[in-house]
Amino acid sequence: MSTSAIFILDVKGKVLISRNYRGDVEMGLIDKFLPLLMEKEEEGNLTPLLQTSGCTFMYIQHQNLYIVSVSRNNANAAMVFSFLHKIVQVMSEYFKEIEEESIRDNFVIVFELLDEMSDFGYPQTTESKILQEYITQEGHKLETAPRPPPAVTNAVSWRSEGIKYRKNEVFLDVIESVNLLASTTGNVLRSEIVGSIKMRVYLSGMPELRLGLNDKVLFESTGRGKSKSVELEDVKFHQCVRLSRFENDRTISFIPPDGEFELMSYRLNTHVKPLIWIESVIERHAHSRVEYMIKARSQFKRRSTANHVEVVVPVPADADSPKFKTSVGSVKYVPEQNVLIWSIKSFPGGKEYLMRAHFGLPSVTSEETEGKPPIQVKFEIPYFTTSGIQVRYLKIIEKSGYQALPWVRYITQNGDYQLRTN
């Protein structure tokens, strides 16, 4: 069974907008949501699914809003949560920021979107590119009510027919974020790679694309087990990918949406050697000064270069009179965040740089805060992937038989990248 009604509430539980799809629940039931939520929070028993007599609340929180589905008890929870996240995604693409003000300012469009995205409580058109073709932000002229594009009734609901480009091109970006936590002794305590393949498609007609990766499962099944391959986990695809085809022979086959979209995301739970290693010596002299010696070393191949590197070093809240000395880049003190930021525009592989900082401390000691925040590193390394994932081919098949240019880029960047200090 599906969702009966959708509500968007502010933090105080006040209804900003609602859409009753089935008429099988009383709209006044939403008044029970916030008290029930607070009760569960006090008990320490908070879940994204709350039950009361006669209905189930399933909700997500975004910024200062609650997006709540009210259903009869036997609703498909996975479908409902997926739909709630899709509402947030579509509205973000329409209004950039979703908050109380943007809901009030765009009341008519929000209601139209809720109306078009679900039919009798079942998800219907959830692709924002198609919705934007007939729900526009300029408002409708009364004498010519817009007709929904054919894509809404087509099997391929995410792409319109009749798209034409003078130059047919496909841009594919493989972007990997490295999450890492290392101890003061240099041991990696936690590491993972979170990757995504993003595409920009400017192709005429209804092309079918086939993407081949150095996927471990595929390589083993085709007798290439010893070739360099990667084992992808938690793979999520855009709705355009033919899942049955992927499950059968690991081929990623799809008719793409027009323009920009995320084709897939994946995760690798592999042991990652820190790409940029930081050594820190911090000397605290009570009531007078604190001195930092920070050494940054790039631990990737010399032919690669990290760009826009930032080493973010926490400093005491009562520090003053900053002095810096560095062999490369620039250093600035950001007192409102209690950090110093060492910026290095270009950091080639196999290099080591040094930075020294000196701060004065007041003669009156402030209370020690618990724990020492870690050093954070931000970076971007183009033409490089940590996992070793490779695009082996990108085939474009279209009945008119035109030639198209595929462009592939690889980028590795920091995710949650932290190194603990003494």
UniProtKB/TrEMBL annotation:
InterPro entries tied to this protein = Adaptor_comp_med_subunit, AP2_Mu_C_sf, AP_mu_sigma_su, Clathrin_mu, Clathrin_mu_CS, Longin-like_dom_sf, MHD
Where is this protein found?
Cytoplasmic vesicle, Clathrin-coated vesicle membrane; Golgi apparatus
Source species of the chain: Daphnia pulex
The entry assigns this protein to a family as follows:
Belongs to the adaptor complexes medium subunit family.
Keyword annotations: Cytoplasmic vesicle, Golgi apparatus, Membrane, Phosphoprotein, Protein transport, Transport
GO BP terms: namely:
intracellular protein transport; vesicle-mediated transport
**Superkingdom of origin:** Eukaryota
Fetch the Gene3D superfamilies from UniProt. Answer: 3.30.450.60, Mu homology domain, subdomain B
**Which PROSITE patterns does UniProt cross-reference here?**
CLAT_ADAPTOR_M_1, CLAT_ADAPTOR_M_2, MHD
Role noted for this protein: Subunit of clathrin-associated adaptor protein complex 1 that plays a role in protein sorting in the trans-Golgi network (TGN) and endosomes. The AP complexes mediate the recruitment of clathrin to membranes and the recognition of sorting signals within the cytosolic tails of transmembrane cargo molecules.
Recorded protein name is: MHD domain-containing protein
Q: Name one Pfam family in it.
A: Adap_comp_sub
Q: Tell me, what is one Gene Ontology molecular-function annotation carried by this entry?
A: clathrin adaptor activity
Q: Which residues form the MHD domain?
A: 167-420
The topology of this chain with respect to the membrane is: Peripheral membrane protein
Show the GO cellular component annotation of the record.
Answer: clathrin adaptor complex; clathrin-coated vesicle; clathrin-coated vesicle membrane; Golgi apparatus; organelle subcompartment
